[in-house]
User: Fold these one by one.
Assistant:
Number 1:
Amino acid sequence: MNQRLSIKLARYSFSSQLTMCKCRVFCFSSDLKNLGARRVCLMTDKNLSKLPPVNAVLNSLAKYGINFQMYDNVRVEPTDQSFIDAIQFARKGGFDAYVAVGGGSVIDTCKAANLYAASPSSEFLDYVNAPIGKGKPVTVPLKPLIAVPTTSGTGSETTGVAIFDFKELKVKTGIASRAIKPTLGIIDPLHTLSMPERIVANSGFDVLCHALESYTALPYNQRSPCPSNPIDRPAYQGSNPISDVWALHALRIVAKYLKRAIRNPEDREARANMHLASAFAGIGFGNAGVHLCHGMSYPISGLVKSYKPKDYNVDHSLVPHGLSVVLTSPAVFAFTAQIHPERHLEAAEILGADIRTARIKDAGLILADTLRKFLFDLNVDDGLAAIGYSKADIPALVKGTLPQERVTKLSPRPQTEEDLSALFEASMKLY
Ligand SMILES: NC(=O)c1ccc[n+]([C@@H]2O[C@H](COP(=O)([O-])OP(=O)(O)OC[C@H]3O[C@@H](n4cnc5c(N)ncnc54)[C@H](O)[C@@H]3O)[C@@H](O)[C@H]2O)c1
Ligand SMILES: [Fe+2]
């Protein structure tokens, strides 16, 4: 029988500006010169301002005679107020380029400062994701932003996303637009050597969840509605063949190197690989998106009570982002595996599960058990209860997840309020 094969072609558009830098961060000041920068805004946080990554950048700026002003008031886990403070600094400064040296908190704050300085009459909520903000598309041209990540986690140097804690609603949300992607990301693992153990662990869990969530997200061709104008295309488009490559590659690196990077600060091979994995996963999820672990993490961070994590040199309580996403991961993947179980099983195998005799219908449970073991081995807090939550908090946690449609709608399996309650309840204790 002759059967005509019909091959469906899809169009993929993809962009990211990353450079591999052989001469460490020092050459980045030449990039600033090439960009014609005359007045640079350098952003970082107070803790980092005393550490080697910022020193290296200051030396480089001095060596190349770059005129700059430093803003080191970035809040670790930024809020609307801390974003606004940085925006005011940027609006007053009249800068023609930005350099962000830090983790996701710094890079995200710098993205927001660049955006609102370029759009001086905008109100803060104009660009914030709907339904919390107005979600206006960005049409103004932004100044160049060079991102120098110092954690191995968010991949923010590759993404068009800036996340903050919206205090009034006690929930995290953000700004999402390709227009706010950094112009250049400098991936230099030497900057990560000063990271203490728990920051390596928590930022590494963010990489783990970026990879797992983007690989299991709703496929791009099942996402709706289709925007009538390309400017309204969401930054997060659903899993697709291109982001799959980045997600799987990042997951393999996490499986091989995360434990080593956490346990031994001298293990440069592990730290270097994790720094790359962070960017790889960033390119993957920055295009495909994340889903329930992230959607549910926003109220987990936003409703923080008195939790003060070890190794975070800050004076306020916070749930580090990576911890807030990973604590629900066993429950989430046990729930989502009904759809595309083969992807869940593949992920479990990459993370070390023996799947030779596994049944496909057990994929979710196998991945959940693999994750639990992974977290137990790394001394991770025993679930949401260990960071201060109880059953009584579940309604508020669910309420804070409901507006996170930008990500929760990318879950391969739709979820009701009851499902979310059950997921939070199952995440109270892990072991
Ligand atoms: N934009 C995105 O695509 C994206 C993605 C995921 C998460 N995020 C956001 O990023 C933030 C979290 O960022 P993060 O996990 O990178 O951490 P972070 O920027 O919040 O920093 C955490 C702590 O690590 C310290 N630190 C950073 N680098 C260090 C180094 N090299 N040596 C010693 N200390 C160091 C900081 O001073 C801080 O105390 C959250 O707000 C999260 O929501 C953004
Ligand atoms: Fe994240």
Number 2:
Amino acid sequence: MIWPVVCSLLVIFIIYCIKASIRPRDFPPGPPCLAFLGSLPYLDVRNLSKSFSKLQERHGDVFSVFIGSTPVVVLNGWKTIKEAFERPEFSGRPGNFSGTFFQKGKTGITTTEGKHWSSQRNFLIDYLENISRSGSQGFQDIMMDEVTDLKLDLTKKLSEPIAVSYKLNVCIINILWNLCCGRRLHAQQQEFQTVYECVDKITQFMSRAAIFSFLPILTKVLPESVTKIEKGRYYRNRFHEISEKWIREHRQEYRGNRTGDLQDLYLEKVNKGEDNFTEQGLAAMIREIFVIGSESVSVMLRWSLRILSCHPEVQEKVQEELDRVCGRGVDVTWDKSDQLPYTMAIVKEVQRFADIAPTGLMHKTVCDATLQGYHLPANTLIMANFTSCHQSTEFWKHPEKFHPEHFLENGKLIENKEGFMPYGLGTRICPGMKLADMELFLILSNILSSYQLVMVEGDDGDLGTQFEGGTAVLRNPKPYRVVFENRS
Ligand code: HEM
């Protein structure tokens, strides 16, 4: 009696395995897809871009992998990524666990689509464009105040090996605080400490939780000690309360005639009853700016200081340029950036070399689309392998080395270089890129103008990463200490 049942189950299982291993018609090729596991045995989830580069050699620039039973199309190479990401059909964003958990639903910019997404995104772009436009002194002054405080803080620890993350984060968070709330706080104040802790813990949680988008069952079967969902929920709720409190405070102070910070301008639209502009939308945007905007810039700056401390000859060249154009120890301002090609090349080469977001954020097709002869149904998940560009000999003479000359031609800066896309490209390109570029330039150049970065004794100068990036995980440098010496 039992054998017919076992045989039927076996047949069903075999049919399921065969079905799971067949790709849809005209779908991009790729490694075999196994039942339940998909292509996982063929992927190193801690270093997806490395696995992707191997698969690219075999299957070409467009291939597909399966995460569990979900197909993901992976794009490689500058031309292919550009061709796809510039088309509106590829501008969708799949619902992902971390993003919707953090915002308590699909709101803000990163996780939304359609009219809501474009209205919020355009608002942020216009605002950032306005405050960072050359001639707009206000925002640069704010950044320079923070840079001055950072330097004061560094001066207290001259000639000692120090970890830089906390000091950098204080500076970055206060820049964002000014942008969103029109004020700053001292790092010792309780409110600052709370926000710092929330941003830090939420970022950690979101990185760890990226896998739950593909395998939501894990949130049910794994113990809290592994998923850390309760802890994530605690910090998320605290940050929601804080962002809502900021808006209440702003409302009380708002007289309808201020045109200052981001909240003032957003509230103006709320008051006019413009579509998609609500106080909840504003709170979501602020939370997003704090979490995405602080961690990315912080990781990039940590890479910058690490790389430069390991390359004294590069520091020497930047300092020669800064001294010549601005004067030794004199504040370096954004309007000088045109005359500082080597310094600008350093900022760009750090972005290429560090490659902090190797697979960016996942996209989705919003309707049926074709790409290089393949048919991609609506709602297909799309991932770009930016490393395939940032590490390609097609664009870089020494892809594996830190080589600022990659961005220089006859002593001039190459502004838009093919194969370079630290902020993604096309319809979803990072709206914070100009702000981030300014922050990186001002913080880095002003530090180098005053200090020499020196490796700690015994440091072997390894420029390795703490963990290779899987999706939604930023590549960090290995933890390090560095010595700041006054330039004699
Ligand atoms: C060095 C710093 C930064 C890097 C490397 C970076 C990189 C990226 C990348 C790769 C994406 C994904 C693009 C795509 O989906 O194709 C992105 C999206 C985004 N970034 Fe940044 N970013 C940085 C700084 C910032 C800052 C300072 C802000 C905020 C002020 C910001 C806000 C956003 C937002 C809101 C999105 C989502 C855009 C959308 O879905 O339309 N980023 N960023």
